[in-house]
Amino acid sequence: MRDHADSFSDGNDRKNWLLRNACVIREDGSLLRNTDLWIENGVITKIAPAGTGNAPDDFEQIDCSRFHVSCGLPNLHVHTAMNIFKGIAEDADSDEWFNQLIFPYESRLTREDVLLGTKLGIAEMINNGVTVFADHYFFEDAVLDAVKECGIRADLAPTLFGMAPDFDDRLSAVRSFVREHRNDSPLVSFRAGPHADYTCPPDAIGKIADFARSEGLGIHLHVSEEAAQVKLARERYSMTPFAYLDRYGIFDQPVLVAHGLWVEEEDLQYLKEDTIFAICAKTYEKLAMGRGGFFTCRDRIRYGFGTDGAASSNTLNVAEQARMFALLGKFLADDAHELRTMQVWQHLMGGHGAFGFGTGKMCEGAPADLVIWDLNAPDTFPVYHPVTSILYSANSSHVRFTMVDGRFLKYDGKLLLDVDQLMAEAEETRQALIARGPGKAEVSYL
Ligand SMILES: [Zn+2]
Fold first, then answer.
1. Strand, coil or helix: what is 416?
2. What is the topology classification, in CATH, of domain 8-71+366-417?
3. 445 C-alpha vs ligand 1 centroid, how far in Å?
4. Fold match, 8-71+366-417 / 73-354
5. Distance (Å) from CA 206 to ligand 1 centroid
6. Burial class for 261, CB neighbours closer than 10 Å (0-12, 13-18, 19+)
7. For 103-128, what is each residue's pLDDT tens digit?
8. What are phi and psi for residue 45, nearest 5 degrees?
9. Using an 8 Å Cβ cutoff, are 245 and 271 in contact?
10. pLDDT(337) > 50
11. Does domain 73-354 have CATH number 2.40.50.140?
12. For residue 25, what are the CA distances in angstroms to 163, 206, 302, 400, 438?
């Protein structure tokens, strides 16, 4: 057995690993101290008290006696490529943000921009301990290429705007794309990705529901983000966005609801066991999206956390989103007992249930998608409970290692990706985006 391999490239290969003498944080927040984790062929094969058994020669070991190990973090809603727009739309309300900035700039995005933005976003997620994410964007072939190149796990929803003039062509292109690539990699899955109820008229949303049903896909879409969207649906269809989507069969499939901040009591009847909300609290605060109904209904809704794109939330750190959600919930309820730390951690980890990968379980036989946390730093120390430190004090510098499918994508504090190269290209792209300027968008917000 080789000792702790300290060269960067060593982390990349899928090897058999023994993470020795760790404090393991389970998905319910409970701890297993002085524990060895055995990882073979990308799977956790043994969780045992430290020192139980000797590892064979083909195992490498990492001394985790000063570290904590948890499952990796799931990001339930992200427009990863929008990392390239980070900081382009500040201090803007939703109308300005969509109609004057984001949709016009997006109308001129190229495949290369999306490839680069996605890689940059994935690098940020890995840096923050995210091991799986649900992406919602266009140029899906570029997104898929980036995911494969970076080695992370992802669920991809090629975005469909039902109001776009070329909707039918786009839907058939997405159908072909999904059929062609759905078995490419065990680390990648697909969903249907209508943009939102208000950008998909009845004919389009019906066709998308049929597409999802016939291909056996889940659905990922924005619903009831703001009061104005609910008002519009009531004016157009005399019903809420949730009722509208239910009418066309959307909830017959597993649904990832991005946001749902303005969910109403009457909407709860449409939600199924496999309807999961992706809550992105930082976006709600930043774009001043209002109070909504989610915080009063949340105990009856299955939810986890997403980051949304970096153009609205500036970071793809899903633990930060959980933190902001908890703080916002306490603040709105005027009650510090609301959203207790363990409850928030359980929702964060419960987000894995939105995927079909079997991740998010700290047990033998589960995929080895893990974070090794180093909380030995002034901003996280002392550690009374690691979950408190992670949720309320930690940042990417405390993610020492990130592992997906038994491979380290961040190893001993360093990302596998060539970050300097990525940033150099991103700076060129930023300048090109500004030089090109906003275009004329084919879609509009409300
Ligand atoms: Zn979104």
1. coil
2. Urease, subunit C; domain 1 (2.30.40)
3. 13
4. no
5. 21
6. buried
7. 999 999 999 999 999 999 999 999 99
8. -105, -15
9. no
10. yes
11. no
12. 46, 43, 22, 15, 46
Count of positions (residues) in the chain: 446
Domain ranges of the chain: 8-71+366-417, 73-354
What is the distance in A from the centroid of ligand 1 to the CA of 310? 10
Joined tokens for residue 200: 């998909």
Model confidence pLDDT, tens digit, residues 224-264 = 999 999 999 999 999 999 999 999 999 999 999 999 999 99
Q: Which residues surround ligand 1, an ion (CB under 5 A)?
A: 258, 308
- Whole-number Å distance, alpha carbon 371 to ligand 1 midpoint, is 26
Q: What is the per-residue pLDDT for 12?
A: 58
Distance from the CA of 10 to the center of ligand 1, in angstroms?
36
CA–centroid distance, 224 to ligand 1, in Å, is 11
Residue 312 CA to ligand 1 center (angstroms) comes to 9
Q: Residue 307 C-alpha to ligand 1 middle, in angstroms?
A: 8
In the reported structure, the alpha carbon of residue 126 is separated from the centroid of ligand 1 by a whole-number distance in angstroms of 20
CA of 77 to the centre of ligand 1 (A): 7
pTM over 0.85: yes
CA of 280 to the centre of ligand 1 (A): 9
Residue with tokens 């985790």: 64
Tokens of 396: 């990417």
Say what the pLDDT of residue 195 is: 97
